[in-house]
Amino acid sequence: MNPPKYIEDLESSERRKNYFKHITVSLSIVVSFLIVGPLVHEVAHLGVLILQNCSYSTSFNLTLLKGIYASVTPYCSPETLGVSIFYASGYVSTLIFSGLALLPKKFREHLSGIAIGSALSVLTTIGSKGDIQNLSQSAGIENTIVLISLFIIPALVVSLLGVKRIVDLEGEE
């Protein structure tokens, strides 16, 4: 292999442009997974509390490996429906945000990456203690598998649609 010839061929080809695009799409997935998805989740909880005129305390943290993680503690006792909406709002809003990120025609690769990362943030936290367990208790649902499925299935659909969109766009080039 002749290194100067290889570099000349690389510079004259589209591979360099595609390489940069692949890196930025990958970064959009990671950033969305660690920061955007969890931020949308927590802001939705805060929005519900603000709409219910409920006081609250928050604790937001950011680390390189965990991304954003937070806790929102309400200081009011809303009715059962309000509690259920509070616990469901995080996952529902993240899934809606992820789905909406697939709609625009501009920046399709990067927005698909954001949709994938946000949906993956739902998938990786759905089984941990927290919102799902609290939602099932407040809604009186004994079988949390059914409840978990209500969030896992749309998250998988959004993730797979995002991947399909990226692959289809790659094929168009």
Summarize the structure.
The protein has 173 residues and is mainly alpha-helical.
Features:
two-stranded antiparallel ribbon, mainly alpha, 173 residues, single chain
Written overview of the protein:
72% of the residues lie in helices and 9% in strands. The chain is mainly alpha-helical. The mean pLDDT is 85.
SSE inventory with pairings:
Blueprint: H1 3-12, H2 15-51, E1 56-63, E2 67-74, H3 80-101, H4 108-125, H5 131-139, H6 144-172
Antiparallel strand pairs: 1-2
Largest sheet: 2 strands, antiparallel
Adjacency order of strands in the biggest sheet = 1-2
Identify low-pLDDT runs.
none
Helix percent reads: over 70%
